[in-house]
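BUG: 3D viewer hangs when loading the predicted structure for this chain

Environment: internal workstation, default settings.
Expected: structure renders.
Actual: progress bar stalls at 90%.

Input used:
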Amino acid sequence: MQNDALSNLNINVTKIVKYVCLAGVLIVGIIFFEKGFTSFLKSRQTDKNEK
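Structure tokens produced before the viewer hung:
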């Protein structure tokens, strides 16, 4: 009976790795976008103060 339970378990490691990598890239992209957008807003705000 234990053999039947183990034989039905199918883990697709390729899909897991693919989605973990995609999630990591997405998180890094969001972090860099947020940092760039924040620095853009700060530089824009200092430009208004200089005028």
